[in-house]
Write a structure and sequence with these properties.
The chain is an alpha/beta fold and 206 residues long. It has one domain: Rossmann fold (3-Layer(aba) Sandwich). It contains 6 helices and 9 strands. Strands 6-7-8-3-9 form a 5-stranded parallel sheet, sandwiched between helices. It starts with a strand and ends in a 12-residue tail after the last strand.
Length: 206
């Protein structure tokens, strides 16, 4: 189980609290929605959960143990803009296998083609690069995924394919999934329940 206990974060010593005293839990295989408008702090929370930002207050635990600060992070984050999450000078084969050797089964499941491997990120479409980043996050030690507006920039057909394959895989592997989105229809369709923290007016965090 992933547990957030009274997480808080703000930028600078006097900035407004974007996340304040937020507590929730996600069980293995559970799919939780985190709705809310843009600019309210959802991506900041995602970065805290994924280990990109330190929580200024509170704790993040897995199975009642604090997540270690080094090594492979068991909570992986998938960004809205995949082109910002990769080294543009690397070829796709290096990006794909950056953290672990990706098995052929994952390559096939997410419809990744071998002729992409010798290309650079800027030579792929947004949907193609999104699949590369998604598969890269599905390491053998990944316990939870945070999908931050993961398919918001993609066409409807590509979105549907990616979500179907991801939901099948997380169900099979019992990976917990936090879906961050302003798309109420998507959240209602794929999630078991929601965390409605960011629907509350931000004044309560000041």
């Amino acid at each position: 189980m992933l547990e957030a206990r009274r997480l808080s974060y703000r930028y600078g010593k006097s900035g407004p609290w974007l996340v304040r005293d937020l507590s929730f839990s996600i069980s293995p295989g559970e799919i939780i929605g985190l709705p809310g408008p843009s600019g309210t702090g959802k991506t900041t929370l995602a970065r805290v959960l994924g280990g990109f930002l330190p929580s200024l207050e509170g704790d993040l635990l897995i199975d009642h143990h604090l997540i270690r600060k080094n090594g492979f992070h068991p909570v992986q984050m998938i960004f809205q803009h995949p082109e910002l999450a990769v080294n543009p000078n690397w070829k796709i084969s290096k990006i794909l296998n950056e953290g672990f050797p990706v098995p052929n089964r994952l390559i096939e499941k997410f419809e990744i083609e071998e002729d992409w491997f010798d290309r650079h990120p800027w030579e792929l479409s947004g949907g193609q690069l999104a699949r590369i980043c998604l598969v890269r996050a599905l390491g053998p030690e990944t316990r939870f995924l945070v999908a931050d507006e993961m398919t918001a920039m993609l066409d409807a057909v590509t979105q549907a394919k990616i979500w179907k394959n991801l939901l099948d895989y997380t169900c099979e592997k019992e990976i917990g999934l936090l879906v961050i989105s302003h798309d109420a229809h998507l959240i209602s369709k794929v999630c078991n329940r929601t965390i409605d923290y960011f629907k509350i007016d931000s004044d309560h965090r000041a």
